[in-house]
């Protein structure tokens, strides 16, 4: 099981595409795919699939307001609608059966005929409280074939040439963040859903994270082989924006933001570039996290300028290979400039 | 007092005398992103006298070094802790009223080099 994409629902996919190319930089998008008339079991959507690393970003506009994304858009407006996980077909079929046996609400599998891809949804009404989509590339007929909705879809699929060049330092889309009310219960649910334990816990013996924007939260992180991760946040203070957003929408769980990783020594340059490009920066400059001693820079762009999505940026890091070691996180210096000390000084000999 | 910036923002809520409000609570987010052209340079942590005409005043610390002519917003001038600092309302006012806001460098503040 691999985390593959974050999928946002927007009013105008072309406008949102322009925004996200300006944000991410065309040099950080290896391929852009235009999807027209992609149909699953409840609706048809149009939009774009941006191949970024390690997660892809899908920008989708539903036709109508009756399907999952259409209803979401009508109720909550623009924002992150779902994440997509990719599985081998055998695991896909087993996961579908496993969720069914747990009594979790799964959709009928849908078949994107023109791609030979099958998907099913773990619905928002499930214990995790947010929609999650599971997909596979079929190498044989699906085991549950009589239940499958077969669609000759999408109507059109084209790789689009990106003509405008917007060059940014390295920007990696790595993490969807789910904010929850019941932390212990949700931690267990996500571990079951993803068939893996949380890799890192913020909170517990460590002090809660203070984002210096009025939120104190604890978190669990679930890791994937492609270095992406899913973070589950529980804000401790009801007056902070994370809990207020949950309350405003009357939800127990929701996608709160998506996290891009940026090179530590390019953080300030990126911040300046984005401010100049007209993005709504949330603070006067990147914040150096001194509170927990991890030394990370982080900052946010307000959803008013990113089609309803809170975009968070943190220094580039990965989980350490050695889970028992002292390192809390490992900085990623690939693509970095050399200042006074070359990062290669840490290369394994 | 050196004039630092001036902006007019639309009040986002009704207030009455004695209420404790802040830049965060008085103005909707779109207003807090209204462009503000800086009239002078100032250094990080400079104290700014922020006067909300007809409502109240406070002193806030600048969040970074700023240069004359830069275009900033309430969000990029001040960290959250400053934006959320309580301001006592001296008069009542209705949502929708346009509030001129004057920012001046407090006498102790040194202009940026």
Low-confidence stretches of chain A: none
Task: Give the strand line-up of the largest sheet of chain B.
Answer: 1-8-4-5
The largest inter-chain interface, given as chain pair and residues per side, is: A-B, 13 and 15 residues
Q: Give the termini distance of chain B in whole angstroms.
A: 18 Å
Strand content of chain A: 25-35%
Percent of sequence in beta strands of chain B:
25-35%
How many domains comprise the coordinates of chain A?
Answer: 2
User: What portion of residues of chain B is helical?
Assistant: 10-25%
Order of SSEs of chain B: EEHHEEEEHHEE
Question: Given the structure, what is the number of helices of chain A?
Answer: 6
CATH topology of the largest domain in chain A: 2,3-Dihydroxybiphenyl 1,2-Dioxygenase, domain 1
From the spread of the alpha carbons, the general shape of chain A counts as: globular
Mean pLDDT of chain B: 95
Full CATH superfamily name of the largest domain in chain A: 2,3-Dihydroxybiphenyl 1,2-Dioxygenase, domain 1
Describe the main β-sheet of chain A briefly.
10 strands, mixed
Structural class of chain B: alpha+beta
Descriptive overview:
The complex is a heterodimer of chains A (349) and B (113). Chain A is α+β, with helices and mostly antiparallel strands and 349 residues long. Chain A folds into two domains: 2-160, Roll (2,3-Dihydroxybiphenyl 1,2-Dioxygenase, domain 1); 171-346, Roll (2,3-Dihydroxybiphenyl 1,2-Dioxygenase, domain 1). Chain A is built from six helices and 21 strands. Chain A has helices at residues 13-24, 68-76, 89-102, 183-194, 241-249, 267-276, and strands at residues 2-9, 31-39, 44-51, 56-62, 79-86, 110-112, 117-122, 132-137, 149-151, 156-160, 171-180, 200-202, 209-210, 216-223, 229-235, 253-262, 287-288, 297-301, 310-315, 317-318, 330-331. In chain A, the strands form three sheets. Chain A has a ten-stranded mixed β-sheet with strand order 9-6-7-8-5-1-4-3-2-10. In chain A, strands 11, 12, 13, 14, 15, 16, 17, 18 and 19 form a nine-stranded mixed β-sheet that branches. Chain A has a two-stranded antiparallel sheet with strand order 20-21. The longest helix of chain A is centred in the N-terminal third of the chain and has 14 residues, at 89-102. Chain A is globular. The model of chain A has no long low-confidence stretch (mean pLDDT 93). Chain B has 113 residues and is of the alpha+beta class. Chain B has one domain. In chain B, 14% of the residues lie in helices and 33% in strands. Chain B has four helices and eight strands, in the order ββααββββααββ. In chain B, the strands form three sheets. A four-stranded antiparallel β-sheet of chain B has the order 1-8-4-5, with no helix packed on it. Chain B starts with a strand and ends in an 8-residue tail after the last strand. The model of chain B has no long low-confidence stretch (mean pLDDT 95). The chains are: A alpha+beta (349), B alpha+beta (113). The A-B interface holds A 212-214, 275, 280-285, 302, 304-305 and B 29-30, 33, 62-64, 73, 75-81, 84.
């Amino acid at each position: 099981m691999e985390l593959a994409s974050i999928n946002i629902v927007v009013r105008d996919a072309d406008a949102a595409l322009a925004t996200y190319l300006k944000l991410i930089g065309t040099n950080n998008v290896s391929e852009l795919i235009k999807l027209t008339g992609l149909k699953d079991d409840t609706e048809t959507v149009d939009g774009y699939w941006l191949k970024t690393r390690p997660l892809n970003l899908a920008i989708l506009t539903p036709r109508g307001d009756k399907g999952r994304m259409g209803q979401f858009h009508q109720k909550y407006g623009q924002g992150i609608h779902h994440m997509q996980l990719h599985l081998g077909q055998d695991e896909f079929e087993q996961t579908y059966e496993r969720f069914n046996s747990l009594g979790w609400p799964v959709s009928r599998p849908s078949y994107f005929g023109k791609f030979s891809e099958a998907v099913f949804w773990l619905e928002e009404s499930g214990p995790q409280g947010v929609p999650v989509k599971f997909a596979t590339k079929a190498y044989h007929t699906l085991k549950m074939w009589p239940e499958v909705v077969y669609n000759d879809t999408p109507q059109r699929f084209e790789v689009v040439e990106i003509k405008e060049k917007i060059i940014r330092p390295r920007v990696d889309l790595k993490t969807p963040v789910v904010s929850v009310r019941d932390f212990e219960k949700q931690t267990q649910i996500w571990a079951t859903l993803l068939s893996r334990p949380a890799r890192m816990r913020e909170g517990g013996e460590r002090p809660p994270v203070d984002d210096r924007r009025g939120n104190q939260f604890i978190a669990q992180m679930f890791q994937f082989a492609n270095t992406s991760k899913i973070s589950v946040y529980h804000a401790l203070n009801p007056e902070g924006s994370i809990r207020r957003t949950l309350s405003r929408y009357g939800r127990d769980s929701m996608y709160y933001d998506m996290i891009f990783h940026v090179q530590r020594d390019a953080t300030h340059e990126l911040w300046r570039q984005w401010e100049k490009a007209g993005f709504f920066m949330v603070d006067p400059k990147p914040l150096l996290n001194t509170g927990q001693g991890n030394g990370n820079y982080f900052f946010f762009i307000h959803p008013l300028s990113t089609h309803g999505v809170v975009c968070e940026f943190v220094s580039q890091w990965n989980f350490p290979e050695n889970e028992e070691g002292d390192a809390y996180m490992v900085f990623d210096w690939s693509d970095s400039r050399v200042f006074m000390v070359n990062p290669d000084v840490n290369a394994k000999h | 007092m050196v004039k630092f910036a001036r902006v007019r923002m639309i009040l986002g809520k009704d207030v009455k005398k004695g209420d404790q409000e802040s830049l965060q609570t008085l103005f909707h987010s779109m207003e807090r992103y209204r462009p503000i052209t800086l009239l002078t340079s100032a250094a990080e942590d400079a104290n700014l006298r922020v006067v909300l005409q007809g409502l109240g005043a406070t002193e806030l610390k600048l969040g970074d070094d700023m240069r004359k002519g830069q275009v900033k917003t309430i969000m990029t001038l001040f960290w959250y802790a400053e934006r959320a600092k309580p301001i006592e309302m001296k008069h009542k006012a209705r949502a929708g009223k346009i509030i001129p806001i004057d920012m001046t460098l407090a006498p102790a503040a040194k202009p940026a080099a």
